[in-house]
Each structure stands twice: as C-alpha cells, then as structure tokens.
Amino acid sequence: MTSVVATNQTILVVGGGIAGMTAALEAAETGKQVVLVEKNPYLGGRTVQLYRYFPKMCHPSCGLEINLRRLKANPRIQVLTMAEVTGITGDKGNYSVTVKLAPRYVNESCTACGECNKAATSEVADAFNYNLGKVKAAYLPANMAYPQRYVIDGSVVGTAEGEAIKAACKYGAVDLDMKEEVVTLNAGAIVWATGWQPYDAAKITPYRYGEFKNVITNVEFERLADPHGPTGGKIVRPSDGKEAKNVAFIQCAGSRDENHLRHCSRFCCMASLKQTRYVQEAYGDEGKSTVYYIDIRAIDRFEDFYQEVKANPNVSFVKSKVARISEDTNGDPRLWGVNTEGYVRYSEPHDLVVLAVGMEPSVKNVAIPAEVMGDSSGFVMADPSNAGIFGAGCATNALDVNRAVQSATAAALRAIQVVNQVARAEA
Amino acid sequence: MADKHAAYICTGCELGTRLDAAALVKTATKDGKIALVREHAFLCSADGVAMIKNDIDNEAVTHVAICACSRRAKTEAFNFPTVAMSRGNLREGVIWIRPDTDEARETTQEMAEDYVRMACAEVKAMKVPEGNQNTGTSKTLLVVGGGMSGMTAAVEASKAGYKVVLVEKTGALGGMAAKLWKRIPNREPFKAPMDNGVADLVAQIDADANIKVYLNAVVAKTAGAPGRFKADIAVESGAVSTEDVGAIIQASGFTPYDVNKLSHLGGGQANVVDQLGLEALAKAANGGPIKRADGKEVKSVVFVQCAGQRDTSGEHLSYCSGHCCATSVKQAMYFKDANPDVDTVVLYTDLRMPGNNEDFYRAAQNKGVIFSKGVVSGVSTSGDGCKVQFKDLILNEDTSADADLVVLATGMVPTTGPDLDALSEANRVAEGSDEKAAVAKEQVIQMMSTSVLNLDYRQGPDMPQFKHGFNDSHFICFPYETRRTAIYAAGPTRRPMDIAQATEDATGAAMKAIQAMENAGLGKAAHPRAGDLSFPTARLEGCTQCKRCTVECPFGAIDEDEKRFPLFNESRCRRCGTCMGACPVRVISFENYSVNTVGAQIKAVDIPDEFSEKPRVLILACENDAYPALDMAGMNRNEYDPFMRVIPVRCLGSVNTIWITDALNSGFDGVMLMGCKHGDQYQCHFVKGSELGRYRMSKVYDTLKGMNLETERLMDLEVAITDVDTLPKKINEYAAKIQEMGMSPFKGL
After folding, report:
1. Could B477 and A57 be called an inter-chain contact, meaning their C-beta atoms sit closer than 8 Å?
2. Where is the signal peptide (chain B) (predicted)?
3. Could you read off the pLDDT of A254-294 as tens digits, one per residue?
4. CATH number, domain B1-128
5. Which residues, in sequence order, are CB contacts of B117 under 8 Å at separation 6+?
C-alpha cells in the first residue's frame, strides 16, 4: 500500500507539469510539506514533450534537470505518479482528498536497468510521442523520466509475455499483482495545476485533421523535430516519409473562434515562429515555411524573435484565416483562402501543414471535484469562493512556460498563506 | 569524531558480470586506502541501504563512496545526509557506454577501477557541510515601489505572516495605476473597463499593521546580505531611518516612452496625447464626454498603436509593451461608453490581445470601434484637429483620417537604475585626471543618482540589467532568478506587462523573497542549489588580494574588507564555485567541493605509460547539462571511448586552471571541458559561470605552449543536455585526434 504522510498544514499540488513542479518546489523550499500528484508515470508534463523553447531555442530538459535535482534533494515533497484526485471534501485549512493510483506494475526496487524492456515483445502506443510511434509494453517513458522507473502496460498482465517480463527482472521490481489503489490524505491548501491539452483539431472540420495524414498539430511537430522523437528528429511527413521542406503553419487553429476556443491561446504564434526554425535547421535554405496568421502576437521582448524570423527569406507570412484544406493526388495538402492584405485568393500546396492548435484546460473547472470558479473556457478563475484551492499555470489561463512558472510561484504563496494561518491557529 | 571511510561496490545491473568486482574491492582497499569495503549484489535494495545505514550508525562511518550507478540515479535509496558521500559511476559511466565484448573487457575494467579510485579519493577530501553560521534572522521584506506591483507584493507577503517595509518615492501609493481612469478587465465577462483597484489596495495597506509605509522616500543605501540587510530609507524631509530586512523586492515600475521623441507621429502637438495623457482626460471627464485640453469635446479619435515601439530603425523601442493594444481598446470604450457616436479608430499592425482579452476586443468591435491594419506615416495639424496619414495594409493604399484627438500608444521604459556595464566603464574612465575623466566622473554621479537600491556591493548599486534595460532573468523555467540573491524584481521593471500580470508577478516575487529569507536564516543556499549548506571559505593568509573572486562572482556575493581582502557574504552566495575557479592561489574552497576534491580525483587516475597506447583524457563536465547528457548517453547505450575519465563540476565557472595543468603535467593526454552555452542566450544556470570559465580557459592555452604541448590537448565544448547522441560522437572524434597527436610526453615524469 502506498502511504502518504500529510496533515492540515500540507500543501497538495495536483499536476506535475512545470507549473505543479514549480509550485511544489517553491513551497517545499520554503519549508512546507508538499504532496505532488501527477497522472502520468513521470513528471514534467507537456513542457518535456517540447523539443525547444522559444525564444532562446534552449531545451526544456535543461530546466527539468534542475527541478528534478531540487526535488531529489528535498525531503519535504512526496510524489505520487499515475495518480488522480477523485474527491475533495472539507474546507480551507482542512481538506480531505482521495487520490486514485493506477498500477504501474513496477515497484521502487526498479533500477531502470532495462531487462524488462528486453523481455517485452508486444508494442503499445507511445503516449509521450503523442502516439506517433510505439514503445514496448515495458518502457521508460522518456530519458528524463522521473521517477526513473519502468512502466508495464496493463495489456500484458496475465499473459505469458507478462510472466517473461517479470522473470527478466532480477530485483523483484515487477509486480503484476499490483491493483488500483485509493488513498485519502489531508491537506490545508490545494494548488490545482493540471495544465492544458491541445484543442481537438478534428473539430475544425475544414482542415481535415485525422483524415489527411499530412495535416498535423503543433505539439506533434515538436516530437518530429526532437532527435528522440518517433522520426529520430527528421522532419518528414507522415503519409510517405517524404522530407517536409515546404511547411505551412496555420495560426489560430481553433483559437479566437467563437465556434471553438473563444480565447487567444497566446503561445501559438511564438511556437510557430520557433518551429519555422526547426524547418530551417533541418533543411537550410531549402526549408521553406509559410505562416498563415491573423495577428502575430509576439508580445514584449519576443518581438525580437519575430523580427529575426521575419528577416529570414525562407519564411513568409500571409495574413489570412485559411478557409479550407484539400489534398492533391501526391498527398500535398493544399490551402485555400484569401490573403487579406490586398484581397488575393490563393490555393497553395505544401508538403506538410502544421495546425497551431490552442490550449484548453485539461481539467475544466466543472470537472474538478470541488466548487471552483471558472471562466467560459473552463480555466480556473481566482475567486475567494474557491477557498483554499488555487489555480496555477495553464489550468488558469493560456500561458507560455515562463508565465506558467510565474503563476505557479504566486499560487505557492497563496497556499502558504493558508497553511501558515493554520499553523498560527494551532500554535 | 575521527573520519572513517567506507566504499561499497554494487554488482547489480550486470556490474558483477561485466566487471571483476573482486578487483574493484581490491582497488578501493589498496589504491583507495579505504578501511571498510563491501560488495553487494543489489546495493540500492532495502537490504543494501540498511547495510550502509548500519555501518554509519554502528561502525561510525563518516564518509561513504558508493560505486554503483550514476549520482543522478537511485537518489532516494542513497540518501545519507549525515555523512560525506561520493558516487563512482560504474553503470551509466562505464558498462553502459562500453560494448560487452572480450576485447573491450580490459579497458572497461580499467575505467571502472579508475572511477572507484576517484570516488574514494573524492570522498576522503570531502567534509559534511555544517552550514553557514553567519546567518541573518530578519524576516521583514523590503518592497521598493508603491505602485500596483509593490502594493500587491506587500499585501501578499503580509497575508503569509511577514512584516513589510514599503518605500514609495512619491507622496502617495498607487503608482501608474492610480493615474488610470479604469483598468483592463481581469475577469469575466471581459466586456467593459473596470475600476483600477488602487483604492482598495491602499485601504488594505493602511489597515495592515504588518506593513510600514514610507512615502516621499527612497532607499539611500542597502548594505548586508539576505537575512541581514540594512536599508537606509531617506525621506524627503531629510530624515533617514535604517530598517533591518531579510529580502528585497524591486517594484520600481516604468515611465512611458517620451512622446516628444515621436515628432513624426505628432508627439508634442497640442491634440496628440499618449495613453497616460488620455487617462488624465478621461479622469477629468469622469464618465462624461471626453474633452481635449482646449475644452473641445472629442468627436473623433485615432489610436496609433506601436508608437515608438517595435521599432526597427534603432531610434526607438524595439520591443512590444504588451498591454497597449488592450489599453487602446479600453480607451476607445471610454469614448464609446460616453457617446456611441464618437468615431474611434485603432490603427495597428498586429492586434495583440492574448487570452480572454479576445473577448474584450470583440466587445469593442460590438461597440463600434473601428480597427484598421495600417502603418502611420505622419500626424499633422489640420483645422483645429489632426490629420493622420497612414498606409492601409488591407486595401494596400495610402490614405488619411481626420481626428479631434490622436492617442499614441507608447511603450514602457523600465525604472531599473544605472546600467552596471555602463557604470563600470564610466568608473574606469573616471579614474584618470584629464578632461575626459572629469566628464566621466560627472556621468558616474548622474547615473548613481538614478539608482533604485543603492546597494553597497562591490559590483554596483543595482541589479544587473538584461536586454532592453529590464531586470528580467533570461531563464524560461526560472523567471525570478536574478543575479542578486534575495533581491527580486516585480512588475514592469522586469518586463513590459499589464496590471493583471504585474499583480501575479508581484505575488510570485513575494513568494521568492519569503523563501530567500527563510533559507538565509537557516544558512541554506537559494536557487538553483536550494538547500545546499556548503559555502565558500578562504584561507586569507594565502590570498594575494588579486580581486579576481570579487570581480568574477556572478552574484555580487563578495565585497572587500578594510584590508582589501575578499569578504564573503555567504547568504548572497549561490554556491556555483566561480570564485574557487577564479582564485589563482587556490585558497577558496567548499567543504564538499574544493580544488582538492577534484584534484584528488585527477591524481587518483592510473596513468599507463607512454608505450601502453592507452591515453587518458580528463572530462570536466557541468553537472547541470553535460553530465546528464553523458548519463543519458549511457542509458541509451551510446558508446564512447574507454580512455575518458569524467568528473562532474558545479559549473564551468568553478573549474580552476590548476586542474588542467595538473592533469596535463601528470600525463593526461587531453582535457575536455563541457559547459553550457554562454552569451545573450546563455543556458548557464549561474548566468555568467560558463562564460567566465571559458574566458579563463582561453588563458591556459599560453600555459600549454609554455609546456611545449599542443593547444589541442585542451578542448572546450559547448554542450546542451539534449546532446545525448552527438556528445559520444564528439568525444570519439576527440579521442581520435588525441591518438593522432600521440601520447603526452609528460607520462611517468
């Protein structure tokens, strides 16, 4: 059984992406007891699925390494992975929270030696790579996965393969009898940092995502560019593996649209500008990018980055909301629309189309098992009626990494205000 | 208590089959001179850990060398905070990067034996850090600036139970926000401007006994260190009070870009105002029709976005201030709400209204505000109003619009104090006695008068600025980290931002400041080595007062005492070791990281003679990026040359040149330095560490020449954590180059 040590002065952080990790670390490094709950088998959330960050073109794993080292060095944080909060009762200063833990089938004896992986024969979808590839049924989700412990897919439990995997582990780390558990813990304050999910591009029917293989999303494109992604870092199109040297980026795919997401998702302009760099990196002057946009929202000093990209002759900008996409017989997606600067109709083929899909909260406020105020998109709104529950990061707004970290740092203080009050009352 | 050393050799994860464990035990005993050496088949298991714990508790073991997996693995198991510990990386660092073949067996074993020797040597040179005794205990926060950011920081810190001293240079709290008629909405329904919120915050502060406010006051001097700052607060009346504070938030805000510099857009003309000017008119109108300065009611208004911003000519601000699109939308609503018949046109190139501001934009469109994508070429006086010439980008034609009033959306200029680089240059010039020096002296005096914090630090009176003069950090994951420990920037001094973001930012800054005070009180380091109890000490009797440590410390932690010796302010220190790397006489060390802990490892490596054809290459790898990359190369079984010996360092900045010259003198054939990217897009977690380290290393090439060695024997490699596949290739290329060059002539000397 998983045991959790928590009191009404404990801060529960829900979500182990960069916002949740930040909130947990900032609170713990201030001396607070923290329980960090993450539904994936590893920490880091969506940031670690990014190849590079804008505007520095540096790597998210660099910051993750620091955060993981902070975490490893801090005895005040208890991490629960493959865990989801299912119930919250009580009030500010004294919550009772139930957490459901899915079986990993691997216990803490795991040394990450990889023998189970060698023994596995079947493959399952690779969630870390947005299902663009496959992994063996016994897998380490990523190089930087923490806890550094393998995961065994439930599909092999009760099979001969499962037994072979178990037998391959010399350390008794494979436990196929592991069952789902429910633990209840006490907390004084809760930071809700469950992050975002990419808007379902299939809902934008004129863009035919899911039907045309060479129409992909911006998050998928990150995995294509990553040397540890499903293509080994090659920017090739899914339909035929052809090098994608002429890439279209469609901005506001779902965002700023009352039929889809009414808000602007803020990060997608910069993400696409960054991704034009990937095309350039891969193919040099042969790599051409076209950005179809309404407004380029490169706010504050990000403007520098926009100007740099704009100065690149291999990147062009078309002010247009793309009307629809068709597919040529060679598999090229063809974009149709009107360039509003001069009102010129276009019908342009590209090797690959990247939809700059926006952010929606991965857990909308109404899905949180407590009374939490939300805006019309389901983002958590700050409100006194939320009592001791505080939103952080992209659960509260469409934010880039930097702003998500700021938001999480602020949320950590709000949670500390509550537990300090509890401590003073009990002193 | 006497030191007792123990070494543990793990044979799990195939270490036992790939390596000769008995030989490793012998190496630890004989070469490592370790009294207690044990072998275990599964060292990280409960049983293995219990064995080590038992030795610590019952055998009085004080120093533990774990020879098993990487220091990044199994950290929960190998967690013995009361003893000194080293990790010999036999798994990720040896068997996982070597092929499992008979030919490779000998060199793989040699590699493992060296890592055992190194782990033993390192741990023997280490001490358990005892923590800084020179701690400060102040838990009071100083907030400089009484605008929205500063007030928010004060209120939020107080809510967490901390006392606050709030210093505002004007006669009232509120800052720029108080000058706004209304603010951009920060909550649904995002349809109309809302109250600026200043009065409410001021009332909260007035009623809060935890917050002490100084108005008409500036910080005349800040001395000390986190947990024990002494801030002299000078009030206009002449009175100076000294406050003991533990941490500081600089919320010094911004000034609008000078509209008079924008004469091409009509700046300076009677009927052309900036956004703040319009707020004043709106306040005067108090919800009624807005009138110009001459009293005429405004019937038509044109907003010119990006006025003197996003400028590519180099004359004005090159950045975007983020809030101005939404501010113009808000201001257009002032007109429409008072009188729907007022013509309101917003001329923009990109309308930047992120998040739910999109709804605010829609609401303005519904109220009849016209948005035109256009670039303004000129604003002139026309009749008793203005004529705005612009190129309509949609219709692709030059056109113009007449307006009673033109509003220029100018940008934010941060109030950050003097630019330290400019100041140090001026200071340098001012040392002379000629006319130029006199001018420079004047310039220094002038710059100093703009200081916000007046830090009594050797490295200057304010926080170093980053691009465009802001106090922001360039980290994406760690936006609050400045180069002055326990001093955080909040609000538009850090980055252009709106009120909603500034309040969030200020709350986060208050979090960091509180954390910094708490940790300073416990003698613990701040980010990124949070909780580290080690701190640098100097044997001053050996110090030559060369000042390199004081100059190079990226965090301004070291001053000079009255005898001109370095004066370490431990709680300002971030434990990167740059001072240690800088010291030419090697008198600076940490208890668990020193010239000796690394030097001993270098000496511990067995150097085969020149006829063995077994070169040795020392790799000094940054523990934050390069070392993890090497680790992950191992996890992916990316092989590299068996003659490499890797030592992780805290930062390239901590690398002392003695390690390199010692290594080469003792017969190493090459040295590779692996550090993070430096410069504007730095990835060094200590900001300047890798840059300073590299600069220092460039001097070693001369030493190499003096030793009659090829300069290629020292290689400086910029490594990112993701170089998991490319790094082994680069290592192998270097190994081939060393083979080509031949063995070092220094072997066996």
Report:
1. no
2. none
3. 999 999 999 999 999 999 999 999 999 999 999 999 999 99
4. 3.40.50
5. B27, B28, B31, B32, B604, B605, B606
